[in-house]
Design goal:
Elements lengths: L4 E5 L2 H6 L3 E4 L5 H22 L1 E4 L2 E3 L9 E5 L6
Parallel strand pairs: 1-5
Antiparallel strand pairs: 1-2, 3-4, 3-5
Length: 81
């Protein structure tokens, strides 16, 4: 069974969520987290996640099958280089 995961939101993701972090129970994969966040926060979050990424325990991932660790950062798309 999946453990609780601390989710931190940055920039547009924080705006869409209306918070900078929260703890979610039993979300085992990136794909399931994506579905939970879109269901919870709607179209604004869906737009962020369409081109954003997840930082799972320090490793950037867009792979829906990736298992979550204890911490995930939701990152909006970044411009620049």
């Amino acid at each position: 069974m999946a453990e609780d995961v601390r989710v931190r939101y940055f920039a547009a993701a924080a705006e869409a969520a209306g918070r900078e972090e929260e703890t979610l129970a039993a979300v085992p994969t990136v794909g399931e987290l994506r579905a939970v966040l879109v269901a919870r926060y709607g179209d604004a979050m869906a737009r962020v996640l369409a081109s954003g990424s997840f930082l799972v325990d320090g490793v950037v991932s867009r792979d829906d099958s990736r298992a979550l660790g204890s911490r995930v950062d939701v990152l909006p798309p970044f411009a620049g280089g």
